[in-house]
Amino acid sequence: MVNAGDMNGSGNLMDFLDEPFPDVGTYEDFHTIDWLREKSRDTDRHRKITSKSKESIWEFIKSLLDAWSGWVVMLLIGLLAGTLAGVIDLAVDWMTDLKEGVCLSAFWYSHEQCCWTSNETTFDDRDKCPQWQKWSELLVSQSEGASAYILNYFLYIMWALCFAFLAVSLVRVFAPYACGSGIPEIKTILSGFIIRGYLGKWTLLIKTVTLVLVVSSGLSLGKEGPLVHVACCCGNFFSSLFSKYSKNEGKRREVLSAAAAAGVSVAFGAPIGGVLFSLEEVSYYFPLKTLWRSFFAALVAAFTLRSINPFGNSRLVLFYVEYHTPWYMAELFPFILLGVFGGLWGTLFIRCNIAWCRRRKTTRLGKYPVLEVIVITAITAIIAYPNPYTRRSTSELISELFNDCGALESSQLCDYINDPNMTRPVDDIPDRPAGPGVYSAMWQLALALVFKIVITIFTFGMKIPSGLFIPSMAVGAMAGRMVGIGVEQLAYHHHDWIIFRNWCRPGADCVTPGLYAMVGAAACLGGVTRMTVSLVVIMFELTGGLEYIVPLMAAAVTSKWVADAFGKEGIYEAHIHLNGYPFLDVKDEFTHRTLATDVMRPRRGEAPLSVLTQDSMTVEDVETLIKETDYNGFPVVVSKDSERLIGFAQRRELILAIKNARQRQDGVVSNSIVYFTEDPPELPPNSPHPLKLRRILNLSPFTVTDHTPMETVHSVFSRGRSGKQYCLQRICLRLLGIITKKDVLRHMAQMANQDPESIMFN
To answer: Kindly report the CA angle at 25 between 19 and 30, in degrees rounded to 5?
Structure first.
C-alpha cells in the first residue's frame, strides 16, 4: 500500500530541476502535500546554492541572503502581527465604549482615554468626566431615570446589531474563509492539507476588520483564536515574497508554525506560551530550527505590541495581577474542584456546540447565516445589558474577576465590611465579612455564568470570526471567583475549624478570591481545548502570577483528566472531524487489530485498480484515464498481466507533462506511446514520436504487504514528515491495491461506529 502523494525519491527530483515544467511541484486545492518530495526538493536546492556560492562573490552573497531569509520572514511576521494586534485592541476598546456613549473632546477616544485627558476627574468618580457623555445625555440631556435607561438600552442593542450585521456581510461577500476561529483549519493546513485562499490577503484584511466589529458587538466570543489565523495569514503573505518558501509547501509550513506562535504571543502577551502552544496544539512538524524561529517571531511580535501599548498600563500582560498572599496546601482541594468543573464544562460545551453546528450544517438553518448572527446578537444584547457583568467587554470582566481587593477598589466584588479600627497597610488587608455589594455581585455573577455558558454554545461556529479562549476563561473566572468568595467567608466565620486553624488566624489575609478566578479560568480553557503545558505558561505570562504555577498545573491536569474521561477530542479536533478535513492527529493511537488488506482498494466486487503501464499506453489512453477518473495519481506497472510495480505517477504532473510536451515537443500526438523506462520501446516504422515521462515517476513509492497491521500503516500516514498521501499494497512486487489517507480515516470512522462518508475531502 502506498500513499500516493508523499513518495517521490530524490533521484527523479533531479530530473525535475534539470527541466522544470511550469507549475510542477504545486498542488491542487483540497489535496495533501508530499512531505518527502518537498524535503528532497529543498535539499537539492540547498545543495545547488552551496556549490554555486564557491564560484563568485555574488553567488556567495546570494547564499547568505538565502540563509538569512528565514529570520527576515520571522522579523516581518512579528512586526505586522504585533501592529495588527495593537490596532485591533485599540479599535475594540473604542467601539465597545461607543455603544454606551461618546467622548466630546475627541470622538476617537474610548471612555478611559477620554477621562484620562480630563482635568475634572476625581478619584472617587474616575469613570465619570464631563467630556464623556452617554447617549441619553447627548440626545435628551438626561443621565438618570427610566427614559434615559430605555434610550441607552435601545442604542446599545442597535449598535451591537449594526456591528454584527456589517461583520457577517463583509465575511459573506468578500472572504468566506474569514469566519470561525481558524485554528482547526490551521491545524489541518499544517498537517499538509491545501486550502487555497484560507491564508490569502483578502482573508487577512476582512478578518482583521470584522474581528474588531464582532468583539465590539458584545457577542460571547474572543479575538485570541482568530489572531492566530491573522498571524498565519501574515506568515503566508511574507512567505510568498521569498522563493525558498513560496515554491516549497513543506518550508512554508515551518513559517506558518512560527506565525501561529506569534499570534498567541500578541493575543495574550505570552511569547513563551505562544511557542509552546504552536508546539503542543497546532503544529504537525516542529523541528528545532522552527523552535528557534518561532521564539524570535514571538519575541518581535510581543515587543511590537508593547511599543504600541494598547492597554495603557505599560505592561505586556493583559490581566496583570499582584497578590499579596501565598496559597496554602489546603486550598488545593477547591483548586482541584475547579479543575473538575472545567473538565465537565469542556465536555458539555463540546458536545452541545458540535450538535448545534451539525444541525446548522444539515438543516435549513445553515442557509441563513446573516439571520442567525442577527438573532444571536439581538438575544445577547437584550439579556446582557441589564447585568453589569455581561454588559462590559469580556476582557474587562475577566480583569475585574482576577483583581485582588485593595483599599482603593470600588468594585461591588470588594464591598466588604471594614473594621474602623484597622491600622494595617493598604496592601495587607485581612479577610473581612462580605457586605451587601458582594452578595449582590454573587447573584449577578451566577446569572452571568448561566447566560455565558448557554450563549457561547450557540455563538461559536457562526459565520463570523469567533474565538473561544476568552469566553471559556470568563466562565471559569466567574465560577472561580464565586468559589473563592465562598472559601474566604468560610475561613473568616469558621477560622477555628481544623482545616483553617493552622494557616488562617483571625485578622489574617488568608484567601485571595482573585486567585480562584485565575485557576478557574485555566481549568475551563483546558477542559475545552485539552491544553496543559502551554496553558499553564500562557496563564502565568498573562497575569504575571509566577508564584501560582502549582495551582494552575493542578487545575489544568484535573480538567484534562475529567474531560478525557468523556472523550479524547478537544473543541478544535471536534470541529476538524465535523468539517471532514483529512487530519490524522499524531497523538491518536490506532488500537484495532486490522490488516492492510481490510482497508485497501479495490475491494472484492469493485472495478479493478486504474493503472498505467510502463511502455504500452498512448497519450490518448492516458488522457482518457485521467478524464474518466478523479484519482490523485496512478500506479505504474510493467504490464496489466504481470502487474509488477515500478513506480507511481501523480495526476497533476501527468497533465502538466503531457500539456508541456504537446507545446514544446514536435511529433507528440494522441497515438504517441507514453513510456516510463530509461530506453524507448521498440516501435514499428513511421510510428509517431514517443513521449518519455520517467522524470515525473516516483520510483520508490511506499509499499507494504497485504498482512501489514493497520497500526503500522496509520503510523506511516500520521508521523510528521514521514506522513503519506497514499500507500501501495503489494506481494512479491505484484500490485494488489492502494490505500489513501482518506481510506485510513474512513476505516477509523467505521471502527468508531461513525459515518465513514463524513470524510469529505480527498
So the answer is: 160
Look at phi and psi of residue 269 and say left if phi exceeds 0, alpha if psi is from -120 to 50, else beta.
left
673: helix, strand or coil:
strand
Mean pLDDT across the chain, nearest whole number? 84
Cell of residue 590, nine digits: 490506532
What gap in Å lies between CA 582 and CA 32, rounded to an integer?
9
For cell 457561547, the residue is: 456
Cell 485581612, located at residue: 430
Q: Structure pTM?
A: 0.87
Query: For residue 159, with 0-12 CB atoms within 10 Å meaning exposed, 13-18 middle and 19 or more buried, which class applies?
Result: buried
**Complete DSSP assignment for 383-427:** HHTTSHHHHS-HHHHHHHHH----TT--SGGG-B---TT----TT
Residues forming a β-bridge with 633? 650
- Tens digit of pLDDT for each residue in 619-661? 999 999 999 888 888 899 988 888 888 888 888 888 888 888 8
Q: For the segment 179-206, what is each residue's pLDDT rounded down to a tens digit? A: 999 999 999 999 888 898 999 999 999 9
CA distance 138 to 699: 77
pLDDT tens column, 699-750: 878 888 888 888 888 888 876 444 455 666 656 667 888 888 888 888 888 8
Note the pLDDT tens digit of each residue in 2-24.
333 333 333 333 333 345 555 55
Q: How many residues does the chain have?
A: 762
**What residue ranges in 153-254 does DSSP mark as E strands?**
none
Output DSSP code: residue 628.
H
C-alpha cell of residue 9:
525519491
Grid coordinates 502538466 are at which residue? 656
Please state, in angstroms and as integers, the Cα–Cα distance from residue 26 to each residue in 116, 237, 248, following that order: 55, 17, 8
Nearest residue to 234 via CA among 195, 216, 261: 261
| Mean pLDDT in residue range 330-346 | 93
Is omega for the bond preceding 681 within 30 degrees of 0, making it cis? no
The CB density around residue 616, as the number of other CB atoms within 10 Å, is 14
Domains by residue range for the chain, with CATH: 96-174 (no CATH), 178-318 (no CATH), 332-368+441-572 (1.10.3080.10), 596-752 (3.10.580.20)
pLDDT tens digits, one per residue of 199-234: 999 999 999 999 999 999 999 999 989 999 999 999
How is residue 131 annotated by DSSP?
A: T
Torsion, Cα of 349, 350, 352, 356 (10° steps):
120
